Amino acid sequence: MSKILITGGAGFIGSHLTSYLLNQGNEVIVLDNLLRGNKIEQDVFSQITFVEGDVRDFDTVLRVSEGCHYIYHLAAVLGVDIVADNPVETMDTEVIGTRNVVQAALKNNIKKVVYASTSGVYGHSAIEKSVDEEIMIDPRTSYAMAKRYNEIYLKAIYEEKGLESVSLRFFNVYGKRQDQRMVIPRFFEQAKKNLPITVFGSGKQTRDFTSIEETVKATVLLGEQAKGAEIFNVANETELTILELAHFIKDITNSSSEISLIESPQKRYDYEVERRVGSSDKLHALTGFRPNTDVIEGLKELLAVNV
Q1: So what's the pLDDT on residue 249?
Q2: What is the side-by-side order of every strand in the sheet holding 49-52?
Q3: Catalytic residue list
Q4: Which of 5, 102, 123, 215 is the most buried (most CB within 10 A)?
């Protein structure tokens, strides 16, 4: 059994990670400022230590990480519109928060930091093929640039101080308890109410949707097995256009919604990558695991638990 701190553990990915690690028999501490609410299930919440606080407060991070073996650092500002409207807070949370996590880990002799990065660091790179961790990156947004900075910072900290870390580039995670800042729950909500399903741009842009269950499994496996300071994609390796996604959701909900193509707001421009699909070869080579849930089956399962 390990003692584990999860920053941002009350969020979408964090709440699922909290449940997973608790069910493995670990002692779990969650640090979250609750600005986006608490997604941790009640029966899980009663079995963990929860601390309401901000990852940008070093004294708090130092105190709650004392005695921990690992820190899973997920605290972040999320959602395209929120990030676009709050670039300073976004970068402060990333840069100051990660620095605090690292310094607390060093002071408290913590084994490893597992950091939630993003596939957004690839930007418009390799538009014609799937991206792997060795390809030239092209971060375009404050969020992606801060994530890439932290990947470099963690690598430098390992080389200088010996603190191990693993940075995980997530690809469009979806699943239970995700809120409508993200495209899949927004489409489901519109379809269930028979409202227009609003698709930005042409809808031909592609994404690589990865289930929350497989994302969490990969995260924990890499936390346990990765050495040094490495970067890994966590991707389903399957492309789906946003227009296809809208039609699939309309069909499985038996909705009468129209699918409406609307112009993307200017502030979303840098986020509107035309094509993105990732390679999980590096993840598979180390752990033997590769996300492979069929997206359509995943959507049907998601609908079944959210009817």
Answers
A1: 97
A2: 49-52, 27-32, 3-7, 70-73, 112-118, 164-170, 229-234
A3: 143
A4: 5
